[in-house]
Design a protein that fits this description.
The chain is of the alpha/beta class. The protein contains 22 helices and 16 strands. The protein has helices at residues 10-16, 47-53, 72-75, 92-106, 119-124, 132-138, 157-169, 181-196, 225-246, 262-271, 279-284, 289-305, 324-339, 341-345, 350-360, 363-371, 374-380, 397-414, 440-458, 512-525, 542-545, 550-555; strands spanning 33-40, 61-67, 79-85, 111-115, 127-129, 149-150, 174-179, 202-207, 250-255, 275-276, 311-316, 424-429, 464-469, 479-484, 489-494, 497-502. The strands form 3 sheets. Strands 1, 2, 3, 4, 5, 6, 7, 8, 13 and 14 form a 10-stranded mixed sheet that branches. Strand 15 and strand 16 (497-502) form a beta hairpin. 47% of the residues are buried.
């Protein structure tokens, strides 16, 4: 495929004309930027074990780009490959555009290829050269459709060897992996292998995930989070207005975000629904499933007493992993599924599969499974993803909560403690936000990440993640550089084995955003303080078009 196979809308045509704003330090061209090495680093945890996995790339220094003459990058002729890995996120095409423009700015002879369909493209040696003419049609657009993506990991000895062989066949000097925590962990492993093989090829990671769980001091937000939360907020705002109009339904909205609750918190800020569940808070308070249900029931009763038998509840998709007894159940199921993989593969009946698994559980956990709605129990024993994670997007937690709320309200009615009406409906917003046209923020941010990655490659760095920070300010004040991928890695048990993994960043309950949320949320429960954000604005007043997330705003506030 060399051209788009679909018609282009007026808004897409207009968006291709948008010119991303580069950080000030990058605006004078790649020959006017030089790298400055900072202090040496160590992994976020398990230093000795992580060092054992990364003998050649551990402990590298942080890199910052500064103004200064750097003519040497113009003399190199390089061939660079880029690959999308994992789930989609708005702005991916601008990473490619920034990478392409940065390479061409250094030397017109530099070339960029894209591996097709994720890291499987590296293993199958499927790629295409990125041409300016076709790339121009994809600038500032959503999705990953230019070169597609998948969830393949390069992890076996044979796969590493094949990847090296194919990179050498194509004469690729550097590989850029655009992905989330698991994909960038894989990028770190590839960088280590290629360094060990001493073949002089660079690997650079780009922080991508709408989940918002790939962040630290240098990676203030992963790209796509801004756009996705604005899309979800528009949808939730519409539901808030509908609920306030008909006043007869409780809407339970489950939001994508995998384990962390960053998306739910941000959408909560933007729409101010009646109840916002935060998984990290539930875990910290050691709230059982019954306590979570009771907290929602309390609000339902108070609103009913005020004549309001309607409301909005936001549920993060990963909440089920934070409820202590469910978390324990999931961990036990993970081990059982790994240890009994062969036996389970021979069982075709869903009911028999469930009974087999329950027979391996402790008495308490088996009882818990038996009391869960059948659909939820079956979803919990579904196959794990390639990284060994439970597929939380397939677990309909909102339906579990509604069922348990109904049971509890029925009990309270029998005790004459509740006489209201409870009618509920559910929504799940996930894929709707992953491929939207990027906001101006994400369009600028992703372009800068790609351009900055080109600089890391041109200056010979490998095993690094491209970072652009100081994001609460205008792009002119953004800072750029690279942090070692190993800096973010710890050890986790995956599929029964200890493996190096970039740590997911959960909501900090002592952080400014969560503290601000706690101050505000009580005002949302009984009164209708709903906010209706509407669609993303690409044109108009700057304070609207360049709006950053509430999370980023609070994180950078001086209070």
């Amino acid at each position: 495929m060399t051209r788009k196979s679909f018609n282009t809308s007026e808004i897409q045509i207009e968006r291709t004309r948008f010119k991303p704003v580069l950080p000030g330090v990058l605006r004078n061209g790649v020959t006017s930027v030089k790298p400055a090495k900072g202090k040496l680093t160590q992994s976020v945890a398990d230093q000795d074990k992580v060092r054992g996995f990364f003998k050649n790339t551990y402990g590298l220094p942080i890199v910052t780009f500064e103004k200064g003459s750097n003519i040497v990058v113009k003399k190199k002729v390089m061939k660079v490959a880029v690959v999308f890995s994992g789930g989609q996120a708005p702005g991916g095409h601008n990473v490619v555009a920034g990478l392409y423009d940065g390479l061409k700015k250094a030397n017109k002879k530099n070339t960029l290829i894209g591996y097709i369909s994720g890291l499987s493209g590296v293993l199958k040696n499927r790629y295409k050269e990125i041409s300016e003419k076709v790339l121009d049609e994809y600038r500032n657009t959503g999705g990953f459709d230019y070169i597609q993506s998948d969830r393949t990991k390069i992890e076996t000895a044979d796969q590493f060897c094949l990847a090296k062989k194919n990179l050498e066949i194509c004469n690729v000097d550097a590989l850029v992996v655009v992905g989330g925590d698991d994909s960038n962990t894989n990028a770190a492993m590839i960088a280590e292998y290629l360094k060990q093989e001493n073949i002089g090829k660079c690997v650079i990671g780009i922080p991508k995930t709408i989940d918002g769980d790939l962040k630290n001091k240098y990676v203030e937000v992963s790209f796509g989070f801004d756009t996705a939360t604005k899309i979800y907020s528009e949808l939730v705002g519409n539901i808030c207005r509908d609920a306030n109009s008909s006043r007869k339904l409780w809407h339970f909205v489950r939001l994508m975000g995998r384990s962390a609750s960053h998306i739910t918190l941000e959408v909560g800020f933007k729409t101010q629904p009646n109840i916002v569940l935060i998984g990290e808070e539930i875990l910290a308070k050691n709230m059982t499933l019954a306590k979570v249900v009771e907290s929602i029931v309390d609000v339902i009763i108070k609103r009913s007493q005020a004549g309001k038998n309607f409301g909005i509840v936001l549920v993060p998709e990963g909440i089920i992993e934070f409820i202590p007894e469910i978390k324990e159940l999931i961990l036990a199921l993970n081990d059982i599924l790994v240890e009994n993989k062969d036996a389970l593969s021979k069982i075709s009946s869903v009911e028999e599969r469930k009974n087999f698994v329950c027979g391996k559980l402790s008495k308490e956990l088996s009882s818990l499974m038996a009391n869960l709605p059948v659909e939820i129990a079956l979803q919990l024993i579904s196959d794990r993803d390639p990284h060994g994670n439970v597929a939380v997007s397939l677990i309909e937690t909102e339906k579990l909560l509604i069922e348990m709320i109904r049971r509890r309200l029925a009990e309270l009615k029998k005790e004459d403690k509740y006489n209201g009406k409870f009618s509920a409906t559910t929504h799940f917003f996930g894929y709707e936000g992953r491929c939207g046209i990027p906001s101006n923020f994400d369009a600028n941010y992703t372009y800068a990440l790609g351009y900055n990655a080109a600089l890391l490659i041109l200056n010979g760095f490998t095993g690094y993640m491209s970072y652009v920070r100081n994001l609460a300010k205008s792009p002119n004040q953004w800072e750029c550089g690279g942090i070692p991928l190993t800096m973010m890695i710890g050890i986790e048990k995956r599929c029964g084995k200890e493996k190096p993994v970039i740590r997911k960043t959960l909501i900090d309950l002592n952080g400014k955003p969560f503290k601000e949320f706690v101050k505000q949320r009580d005002k949302w429960t009984i009164n209708e303080n709903y906010v209706f954000p509407g669609p993303i604005q690409y044109f108009g007043p700057v304070h609207i078009t360049e709006m950053i997330t509430k999370t980023l705003k609070y994180e950078h506030s001086k209070k």
